[in-house]
Design brief:
Blueprint lengths: L8 H8 L4 H13 L4 H21 L8 H12 L11 H17 L16 H14 L3 H18 L8 H14 L2 H20 L28 H9 L6 H16 L3 H6 L5 E2 L4 E5 L5 E5 L2 H13 L23 H15 L8 H15 L4 H8 L4 H4 L7 H7 L10
Helix pairs in contact: 2-3, 3-5, 6-7, 7-9, 10-11, 10-14, 11-13, 11-15, 15-16
GO molecular function, one term: DNA binding
Organism: Caballeronia sordidicola
Protein name: Integrase family protein
Length: 415
C-alpha cells in the first residue's frame, strides 16, 4: 500500500521494515479507502510512524495506547528531539494521530475501554473526564461539551487549581456570557461546577470554590423568537451554488431546514434508511429519540436525489449528509449544520438575528405558519413540541392579533 503514496522505493522499504509496519500499511489502506489526498495521507502516515517510534522508545504496547499515553505524546512534541521526525505543526500531527488511533480501535487492535477521546487536552482535563466516567457514568458526548468550557478556563487561568479564586472564576463566566448566548452560558456554568467538584473531591482546590460560579438568570418565554422574513429565507436558499458539490449538499440541507422546520441535530442524525421513497416520507428522530414522519415534498425530494447523484462522496457511513472533504464522515454535531446556514446567510446578505443560524430557520418556519393562520396546536405538532406552552412564544410575533387584544392606554389629565 505504501507504493501508492511514496515514489521513493527507499521510503517504501523504510516503512515496510519498521516496527509496526503492518499497522502503518493498514492505516495507509484506510486513508486510501476514505479518499484522502496523497499529500495529506503522507502527513498522517508520518504522524502515525512518529507515534509508533515514540511508543517503542517508551516500551508502551500498541494495545495499551491509553488516553494518558496520547496526552504524554502530545507533551513530547513540544520538546521532541527525535531524529527524522519534524514537529513544526504539532496540532496537524495530532490530527494524524487521532485518525491512526481511530483506525486501531476500528481494527480491534487497540482497546476501547479507556478511549472515549473526549479531548487530547491538558492532563487535568483528561483526569476529570476519566473521573466523570468512573464515578458518574457520564457519556463522552456530554464530556466533549464540558471540555469546551473547561479547556478555555485552563488556557486562561492556567492548569494549577490552587491559583483559582472566586473573583477570577466569576470574571471568566461573565466574559464568556458576553460572547455567547444563554444556553451556551448555562452549559459553561454547569461544566465549571462539575469540574470544580472533581477538583474538590481530589483535594486540588479550596472546598467551597464551586459556589463561586454564578447562576444564570433565565425567565421562561421572556425572549422573542429570532426569525427572518419569507423573502429572506428564499434568498438564503438561493445563495447555495448548485454547480459545485458542496453547494448541492448545502442547498439540500438549507431547504430541509427551511421547509420542514427541522433542528440542526435532525440533519446530523438523518440516515439513508429514514427516507421512504415509495411512501414519500422522511422519518426524523428528534432529541427525545422518538421518530416522527414528515412528508417528503417534491422540492425536498429532488434536492436530496440531486445530492445523491452529483455530490455525495462514496463511503461506508449511512448518514445522509457527510463532509465534502476526506475523511467523508457524518457531521460531528449540530454546529457543523449551523455553520452551513451561517455561510449561506452571509452570501445572501441576510443578517442573522441571533446565534444558531439553523434554529433561526426553524423559528422562521413557525412564524410564517402562524401568520398564515395555522393554529399553535398544529405548529406544535410540526415542531414536535411536547407542550403547546413552548409554542406560545410565537404568539408574540403575531402583531395583528396582538393589536386586536391590546387595551387602550388610559388617558390622564396633565398636571
Amino acid at each position: 500500500m505504501f507504493a501508492k503514496y511514496f515514489e521513493s522505493q527507499q521510503r517504501v522499504d523504510e516503512l515496510s521494515g519498521s516496527g509496526g509496519s503492518y499497522l502503518l500499511d493498514g492505516f495507509a489502506a484506510k486513508l486510501w479507502e476514505i479518499g484522502f489526498a496523497e499529500i495529506t495521507a503522507r502527513r498522517h502516515i508520518r504522524a502515525a510512524e512518529h507515534l509508533l517510534h515514540w511508543t517503542d522508545k517508551k516500551r508502551i504496547p500498541y494495545t495499551d495506547l491509553s488516553q494518558d499515553a496520547i496526552a504524554r505524546f502530545k507533551k513530547h512534541l513540544k520538546k521532541c528531539t527525535c531524529s527524522r521526525y519534524g514537529h513544526a505543526n504539532p496540532e496537524g500531527l495530532m490530527h494524524g494521530v487521532r485518525l491512526f488511533t481511530d483506525y486501531l480501535r476500528e481494527a480491534g487492535i487497540m482497546a476501547t475501554s479507556d478511549v472515549g477521546d473526549t479531548t487530547l487536552g491538558p492532563e487535568l482535563l483528561v483526569e476529570f473526564c476519566r473521573w466523570m466516567r468512573e464515578r458518574r457514568g457520564t457519556k463522552d458526548s456530554t464530556l466533549a461539551t464540558y471540555g469546551i468550557s473547561i479547556g478555555k478556563l485552563l488556557r486562561n487561568e492556567g492548569t494549577d487549581p490552587t491559583n483559582f479564586t472566586a473573583p477570577r472564576l466569576r470574571k471568566f463566566v461573565l466574559d464568556e456570557s458576553s460572547r455567547q448566548g444563554l444556553a451556551a452560558t448555562k452549559n459553561c456554568t454547569t461544566a465549571l461546577r462539575m469540574f470544580l467538584r472533581f477538583l474538590i473531591a481530589e483535594g486540588k482546590c479550596r472546598p467551597d470554590l464551586d459556589a463561586a460560579v454564578p447562576k444564570v438568570a433565565n425567565w421562561g418565554l421572556s425572549s422573542l423568537p429570532r426569525y427572518i422574513l419569507a423573502n429572506d429565507v428564499e434568498k438564503v436558499i438561493a445563495s447555495c451554488d448548485r454547480a459545485i458539490p458542496v453547494g448541492i449538499r448545502d442547498y439540500a440541507i438549507v431547504l430541509m431546514l427551511a421547509r420542514l422546520g427541522l433542528r440542526a441535530g435532525d440533519i446530523v442524525r438523518l440516515r439513508l434508511t429514514d427516507i421512504d421513497w415509495k411512501g414519500a416520507s422522511i422519518s426524523i428522530t428528534g432529541k427525545s429519540g422518538r421518530p416522527t414522519k414528515f412528508p417528503l415534498t417534491r422540492e425536498v425530494g429532488r434536492a436530496i436525489v440531486d445530492y445523491f447523484q452529483r455530490a455525495r462522496p462514496p463511503g461506508s457511513t449511512d448518514a445522509v449528509f457527510v463532509g465534502c472533504r476526506a475523511p467523508f464522515h457524518q457531521f460531528a454535531n449540530h454546529c457543523a449544520v449551523s455553520a452551513i446556514v451561517e455561510r449561506a446567510m452571509r452570501r445572501s446578505g441576510v443578517a442573522c438575528p441571533s446565534g444558531g443560524a439553523a434554529h433561526v430557520l426553524r423559528h422562521s418556519v413557525a412564524t410564517a405558519m402562524l401568520r398564515d393562520g395555522t393554529s399553535l396546536q398544529d405548529i406544535a405538532l410540526v415542531l414536535r413540541h411536547r407542550s403547546t406552552a413552548t409554542t406560545q412564544i410565537y404568539a408574540k410575533v403575531d402583531l395583528p392579533e396582538l393589536q386586536r387584544i391590546a387595551q387602550p392606554w388610559p388617558e390622564v389629565q396633565s398636571c
